[in-house]
Amino acid sequence: MGNFSNISFWKQNYGLLPLHLKDVTEERFLMLNGGYGDFCLQTFENGDVDLFNEYSWSSNTKNYLVIQDKNIQIFNWLDAKPELILKSAIENNLGKFYKYLLSKSYKTQNDVVPFVIDIFKQLRNETTERQNPKNALSILFQLLISLENENLDNISGNFIAFEKAKLPSNFEHYHTRLVSGVKSIKPNLDLILRHTSGALFQEAHKEVLYFDLQRDLFGGVSNKLITKKDSYSSIHYTPPYLARTIVENSLKEINRSRPSLRILDPSCGSSEFLIEVLKQLKFLKYKGEITLVGFDSSASAIETSKFLLHYENQTQWEGRIDLQIQLVDDSLSIDWGTANDLILMNPPLYFLGAVKKQTIKRFTQRCFGRPFYNRKAKSGKWILS
Questions:
Q1: Most buried one in 118, 148, 150, 174, CB count within 10 A?
Q2: Terminal CA-to-CA distance of the chain, rounded, Å?
Q3: CA–CA separation, 77 vs 92, rounded Å?
């Protein structure tokens, strides 16, 4: 019989990437399958259904698998009761079993990401910001932190890497709504920020770009929001599964016995790549010094990057990471340095359907030491070749 308690079994048979859910000393894992069909897994039997639901919902998954002596128990926060499946039955039908897990992993409006995004929309309405939602993001950060510490005035300045905006008079309403979660499931701040932040804040930035302030008939803030469904111009969001795959393969090429690593993302956005690097270096038990450098032209993206990276640094690395996150007008005009061990990026090369030839030349010169490009005959867009 296959050793279902061995994480290598799941990696070899399903191609999954395991990350520790919380503490690296606990055998609780988030099993990643490219953002589709991810699930939680623990290799011991202790725990209760409330904890399993909290962990799976907060990590933006549906299923929580508990490995027992002869069975695998599946907890799904959408279901009233868990399921019990014989290990022997799974071993003889691995493909069928995984397809079944995928069928129980569909997205819903009650998932943690749309749940928090709906609150962010209303916070944006509260602040009436149109171009730069700095206050709305600050309130959202404070709201999330209030899950663990309701007295925000007592939180150390070393922990908060953003300017605290004035809270609205009805902040307690939003706090109560967030704490209540969905189906009485308690939100877990650590899991939300460490495993859901990429998808969450990328959706928040989309709301930032296309926001329509709504007022009711009496001049107050309306609870109804209208958001445009247009494409998001030149801003490109890196899917979490793509960031994880690129980081995983890139780290295989790096000498991790080195005493220090310097990693750069010159178009970092909300730092999907940089956060993923920290997660995987933690899983690989890297003990050296780490410097993370990120540039972006979006103020909201930089604020988000600072918040998320600072949280990861303080909670997982004891503040040992050197974070150099900077708002710039043009990252190609910034000195990247020559000591970078790894450069990761999703470059925003397109703007309104076309890119200047000179921009491509500057970009490829900086990355590869020489300019090179090709032109699509039909679209007229410049692409790397």
A1: 174
A2: 48
A3: 27
Residue 375 — pLDDT band, cuts 50, 70, 90? Answer: very low
Q: Token digits for 77?
A: 């926060």
Cα(351)–Cα(370) distance, integer angstroms: 22
- Give the closest residue to 196 by CA, choosing from 116, 253, 125: 116
**How many Cβ atoms from other residues are within 10 Å of residue 80's Cβ?**
5
Whole-angstrom CA distances from 318 to 27, 143, 159 are 21, 23, 11
Rounded to whole angstroms, the Cα distance separating 344 from 346 reads 7
Question: Which residues does residue 262 pair with via DSSP β-bridges, in sequence order?
Answer: 291
Mean pLDDT (whole number) for 301-310: 90
The pLDDT mean for the chain works out to 81
Token pair of 223 as six digits: 């609870």
CA distances 352 to 202, 231, 267, 356, Å, are 20, 10, 18, 11
Angle at 287 between CA 285 and CA 292, to 5 degrees: 100
**Tokens at 63, concatenated:** 């299923």
The pTM for the full model equals 0.78
Phi, psi of 196 (to 5 degrees): -125, -10
CA 233 vs CA 12, 130, 230, 346, 354: distances in Å: 39, 17, 8, 15, 11
Which region, left, alpha or beta, applies to residue 294 given φ > 0 means left and ψ of -120 to 50 means alpha?
beta
What DSSP element (H or E) covers 45?
none
Cα separation values, 215 from 92, 130, 168, 170, Å? 59, 14, 16, 17
Could you give phi then psi for residue 362, rounded to 5 degrees? Answer: -65, -40
Both tokens of residue 261? 């690593």
3 state SS of 161: coil
Domain boundaries, the chain: 7-103, 112-209, 240-348
pLDDT single digits (tens) 105-131: 989 999 999 999 999 888 888 887 766
Which top CATH class is 240-348?
A: alpha beta
Amino acid at 120: F
Residue 265 and residue 277: Cα distance in Å, rounded?
11
Contact 208, 133 (CB under 8 A): yes
Residues 6+ apart with CB under 8 A from 245: 34
